[in-house]
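Protein record
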Amino acid sequence: MPNIIDYAESVTQSFEEKALGDVDSLIFSTLAYAELYEGTIEDIAGGNLDTVFSDTMLAKKNRRLLLAAAKNPRFALVRVHSFVNAADENEQKQFCAMLFEARDFVYVAYRGTDSTFLGWREDFNLAFITPIPSQRSGVEYLNAAAGKTAKPLFVGGHSKGGNIAVYSAIKCNAEVQRRLERVFTHDGPGFREDMFELPEYKAIEKRIEKTMPQSALVGMLMHCLKNYRVVRSTGIDVLQHDPFTWVVENGEFALEKELSVAAEVRNSAINGWINTLSDEERERFTDALYGAIKATGAKTTRELAENWPQKAKAAMQAVASFDEDTRKILFESIGAVFTLAIKNIKTQR
């Protein structure tokens, strides 16, 4: 089935002929997982790609995506700049952003969770902390980016990057918010319920576009945006989070009417359970989940996938003392982390 790589190879109209849409947004958001410092997409693709994709999620497919975009007049001369990559273990922060600048617009791209478990820990913190450090950095970055250009602004990201994009659009300076054309969140997690009552959210709400696959898990965590579109995916269950499994037909996402029944049941159970917890209980849960991953000795998804049966045993033993309901959710969460880690390694071979 055709995906974003096929789109990058075949849709050659300029952005004046075919306006930037959600498929273009997912391409920029996916390329944001790579180390793209300075230059046009064409120039970057002609450089040392081993450096660009040194530790990138889904590196093999992302390399193909960059090479396809570099040969396409729609993307080739888009300039990437203002790259920022900041990680702080003490602050529990993993933040990365960059600008994709075309002739008539600037796209602010926030990277989703990378291959390090420092980034995963910050994801876990979303359940009980607002704002997390990357959300604060996202606001600062967007305000600074707006000061560099008078062009129309688009903002987006995949996974946690989508959450940061929406948060930044809500919390940025009012004059910056007025300049935002659209905000894209591709399977990005939601927020605590009170976020949707803010006047700043209501001011930007109609410009937010959320897309997620049929079996979305990440995109349905916490309280979700009311309006979203469901994209057909060739992946299985949680592996649909992989943006390369999203189906593109005739230059647009292939859409489904609703999430799968299994996803609805699972997400209702998970969010229902989370909502019964106090902030203190949520923090203890995320500490337990992060502690289970740390018990494996792995620091990245690549390391987790190596000799994974032994690491899975160590993770399960680390949560054995919890009550039955908590253990059940922890086991499911740990299983999803291992599944994604193993899948990522296979796609890089």
Observations:
- The longest strand covers residues 79-88.
